[in-house]
Amino acid sequence: MTQAEPATAQQPLQFQCPQCGGEMIFDVSAAGLKCKYCKHQTPVPVPAGARGATEIPLREGYQRAPRGLGVATISFQCRECGATVSTAPNERTVSCTYCASHSVVQTPADPNLIQPETLIPFRIPREKAVDSFKSWLAGLWFRPSNLKSMAKLEQIFGVYVPYWTFDADVHSRWQAERGWFYYETETYQAVENGETVTRTREVRHTRWEPAWGERQDHYDDVLVCASKGLPEEMANSFATFDTTHLMAYAPGYLAGWRAESYAIDLPSAWVKAQSTVESGQQSKCRGDVGGDDVRGLVVQNQYANETFKHVLLPVYVAAYRYNDKPFRFLVNGQTGEVRGEAPYSWVKITLAILVVVAIIVALVLVFGRGDGDSALLLPRALDATAHAQRAHT
Ligand SMILES: [Zn+2]
Ligand SMILES: [Zn+2]
Q1: Å from CA of 104 to ligand 2 middle
Q2: Are 292 and 181 in contact (CB under 8 A)?
Q3: What is the band of 9 on the pLDDT scale with cuts at 50, 70, 90?
Q4: What mean pLDDT do residues 264-290 have?
Q5: What DSSP state is assigned to residue 303?
Q6: What band does 382 get if pLDDT is binned at 50, 70 and 90?
Q7: What is the largest CA-CA distance in the chain?
Q8: Spans of all domains in the chain
């Protein structure tokens, strides 16, 4: 285990209170900077030359996009999940925001990382995220008894998760076979009451004809998560952000909060976005074919006006470890939506199944008369126990 090295030489404050000289951080309810000491509030300063929510043409992306976060931070890389998270220079991080591993090392911030164009500021206050975590924990069944003490409430952090969003026009040409159903009356022989009889039935057939067409579509803000810390299925199930509330990036939003550096670069993210667009076009073209059935659909897509944005989206993460496995609880920092993972206690589940089995056995003994039905009940219940144990291993 490597302890994070403490932040080196004391750095000057990024956002200094004009009133008392104290440190200012981004405050959710003020929706601006607020002094930690005298509570003085100011709007988030917009850096000179801020471009606002401009989309950058994909082809020139790497050359044109500005770099860095525009604010001094220190970065910690997790040796376990690989996420690199930046914090304020005076914050000491000793465990990973995403997996709670202590194997984190301070790394120099990569000055070549593309700067976010936009972000959605945190709108849900931290106390509300903690409350959601508490009630989520309280609502869990069949979990280890010490889970509540393991999942420490104070270990919930607001982190800006990196995403790419893409816009594009797509022109699709498609070819397929369009099928129309028709029915024919067929006669067949059947045996009824020991006699062979002739019956009729309606049988469905498909008549196929060639079909082709083209269509034009526009895709807006196709989101690709660029985080290494969030497991992909969690990040995808969580892509419910309202991107109409994106604000132009300003470093002040990060004051007092964490931010992850993207781990999926622009070209790889574009490949992912294209597969989202292509499956969208596949089903739109399928709808265009018409008829009763479709086969052999081939779609060719041509992209135009592809643009991208690098955006940061707000998520509260409470990471905790159980039996040295990481589990995460997430709150969408914009909508308050909740996702969580927690270990099951197989001891409690097995005990519960055994109690149910015991009740069934007791009922069979009391009410059953030893006929076939009651004999059938037991093996099924035992089979359920065995099945649950298999699922565990
Ligand atoms: Zn102040
Ligand atoms: Zn980690």
Answers
A1: 8
A2: yes
A3: very low
A4: 94
A5: E
A6: very low
A7: 103
A8: 24-164+217-280+311-342, 347-392
Looking at residue 230, what DSSP letter applies? S
So what's the pLDDT on residue 374? Answer: 45
User: Given this model, what pLDDT does residue 139 score?
Assistant: 78
Report which of 120, 119, 30 is spatially closest to residue 70, judged by C-alpha positions.
119
**CA gap 317, 340 in Å, rounded:** 10
What pLDDT does 164 receive? 92
CA distance 249 to 54: 11
Distance CA(161)–CA(86), nearest Å, equals 11
Rounded Cα–Cα distance for residues 118 and 113 (Å): 15
Which amino acid is located at 69 in the chain? L
Closest-approaching ligand to the CA atom of 100? 2
d(CA 70, CA 155): 27
**Which run of H or E residues covers position 187?**
strand 156-192
What is the DSSP code (8-state) at residue 22? Answer: -
- Residues 6 or more apart in contact with residue 56 via CB below 8 angstroms: 64, 65, 117, 307, 308, 309
When pLDDT is cut at 50, 70 and 90, the band that residue 117 belongs to is: confident
How many A from CA of 201 to the centre of ligand 1? 86
Whether the Cβ atoms of residue 317 and residue 98 lie closer than 8 Å to each other: yes
Alpha-carbon radius of gyration of the chain: 29
The H or E element that residue 301 is part of is strand 293-322
Return the residue matching tokens 């008894």: 145
C-alpha of residue 72 to centroid of ligand 1, in Å? 20
Q: Which two tokens stand for residue 361?
A: 């056995």
Q: Which two tokens stand for residue 156?
A: 């919930």
Give yes or no for residue 279 having a pLDDT over 90: yes
Residue pair 78/104 in contact by the 8 Å Cβ criterion: yes
Q: Which ligand is nearest to the CA of 22?
A: 1
